[in-house]
Amino acid sequence: MEIAALKGKAVQIRMDLLRMIHSAKTGHTGGSLSNTDILTALYYDVMQLNPKDPKWAIRDRFIASKGHSVESLWCILADLGFFPKEELDTFSRFGTRLIGHPNNKVPGIEMNTGALGHGLAISVGMALASKRDGLGYRVFCLMGDGEQAEGSVWEAAMAGAHYKLDNLVGIVDRNCLQISGSTEEVMGLDPLDDKWAAFGWNVVSIDGNDMESLVKAFEAVPGVPGKPTLIMANTVKGKGVSFAENIPHWHHHVPNDEELARALAELSASLESCKQEGKV
Question: E strands along 82-201, which residues?
């Protein structure tokens, strides 16, 4: 897809996830808004997938290690046809498959996630299997920045470099906020880029809400043969909704009727701008 079309798609996904969270009266709003551009770039431009054959052997794998921010992922999978879009109306309701974390009963989900710190280790195993089986698929793992306080992240980072997994891409949604406040106040992470580089990864730091930067970074993988890549995606929590941006309270705040209407109005204006950009 063209960059303008990808931007427009990201806006549409934000609108869908806000409606879904509002209807369900639950969800992790801020982190889903911050990671929407990342997932849009991956699913609509970068990854090799087949919604009609979710278990296709050479598909690229995506692991949402920050599994609590699943709302954007559900909306994208439905939009691509992995399951009927009408099923979004069942989000977080009794008996649904679409619970508040990725659930591998849903087509397109590789593993259940949500216990932070586990996704990268599984991704290392998948990437190693791809190498040893000669299948050539890539593995993309999205982590939160608060998640970087988990020791298992760094064990997996060490293993990924040791096995020279240049088909492995870690992504940190670096919005600098977690449930209890600023990451630097809760558990200081900086210099985070240098830490990943010290563990043997090729680190690329970008604006994680800029579609062109995201596509360029993903398409450059492997940037260094024999090294896994870490995309430090510097994002804004609550991105796209002005009154939610950089507000810790929106980590799992559910918009009320008035907030939803305001947010959808802002996003509708952004969508129109994307359409105009595409015509230029």
Answer: 139-144, 168-174, 177-178, 181-182
Q: Which domains does the chain have, with CATH numbers?
A: 3-279 (3.40.50.970)
Show Cβ contacts of residue 145 under 8 Å, excluding neighbours closer than 6 positions.
172, 173, 174, 175, 176, 178, 183, 189, 192
- Alpha carbon of 263 to those of 70, 87, 90, 211, 255: distances in Å? 19, 23, 22, 21, 9
Which residue carries 């040791």 as its tokens?
A: 162
User: Alpha-carbon distance 108 to 73, whole Å?
Assistant: 10
Tokens of 112: 């259940």
Amino acid occupying residue 42:
L
The pair of three-digit structure tokens given for residue 184, joined into one six-digit string? 């630097």
Dump pLDDT digits (tens) for 149-159.
999 999 999 99
The b-or-e profile of 200-238 (16+ CB within 10 A means b, else e) is: bbbbbbbebbbbebbbebbeebbeeeebbbbbbbbbbbb
pLDDT tens digits for range 85-112: 999 999 999 999 999 999 999 999 999 9
Instruction: Say if CB 224 and CB 217 are below 8 A apart.
Output: no
